[in-house]
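INFO  loader      accepted 1 record
INFO  loader      residues=372
INFO  predictor   begin
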Amino acid sequence: MTFRKVNIAILVLAIVIFLLVLHHNLLGLSDFLKRDVADSSPLGLQPIDFIPEAPQRLTDEINDQEIPVVITASDDRLGGVIAAMNSIYHNTKSNVVFHIVTLNDTVDHLRAWLSKTALKKVKYRILDFDPRVLEGKVKVESEQADSIKPLTFARFYLPMFVPHAEKAIYMDDDVIVQDDILELHNTPLKPGHAAAFADDCDSTSNKFAIRGAGNQYNYIGFLDYKKQTIRKLAMKASTCSFNPGIIVANLTEWKLQNITKQLEKWMTLNVAEDLYSRTLAGSIATPPLLIVFYKQHSNIDPMWNVRHLGSSTGKRYSPQFVKAAKLLHWNGHFKPWGRTASYADVWEKWYIPDPTGKFSLIRRHSEISESK
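INFO  predictor   done
INFO  writer      dumping tokens
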């Protein structure tokens, strides 16, 4: 009788253990599903492709901190994205994950370029940007229609791309990185600041460009101070602007301060009141950022955004200065995959030819002849 009671006790104990294990597994599944649902965005920013395997050289490293880098990819500029990613990947041992924001018509081309070249081991995630989020927020003049691209505004939605990250880097596609991206990621942000930018007036590269630039690097070059809505903000017109092509973002603060909603508010107001300067000094995405981050942003080391290589200013840089730069930025009309950009040869060292043949560099006939 005693032996039978012992057997029953053992059976009951086994059932209890089984139920506890089952409960634990169900909780784990529930958490997984919650994370999966959280990755979906109401804006249609859906992950299309993801390579989760870390390259072998990363798995051996002690520092496994993930560095999210957000970059946009349009088909006509895809070579820029490839060169930027390649330069970052080969200059760091950190665990970088690229969040590539693009439109549906670019996805197949991008995936083929990544999977058939030396970048096939890079960790990346492709996200489809839904242009409908910009309805009613962008005023398109007939003469500007070709220059205004939906992806220009992707930087306004950074928390949507990396919802679980506390910090992320955004960068334009016309850059290359010549140092460890971990240093840029570690840029200190002051308490309460949601982003860090490179100020235009204080930048190392602007000592070459500021002379004769007029209002190009001040708030008045981007905003119409004749409008009452702008004047009410009490922002000094002479305030130095900043370049939003490189952003180090504190996404926790970004979400707490509802930065995206603030930016959308000023986009909508501009459609109604035409608040931007008629002689806009830079990207159409810059004015809302200048308003929202007025005296509320931290600074990036100017050597991490050495710009103007896409304008005549870049021709004034010495080879030594270009070599010392940690990040080179071809902002301006002339891109390094085109004919007349300064130091295009430096950029081209990181370019990987398109295996599909759809994208090719545009070079002057004399350059082609010299290379033969």
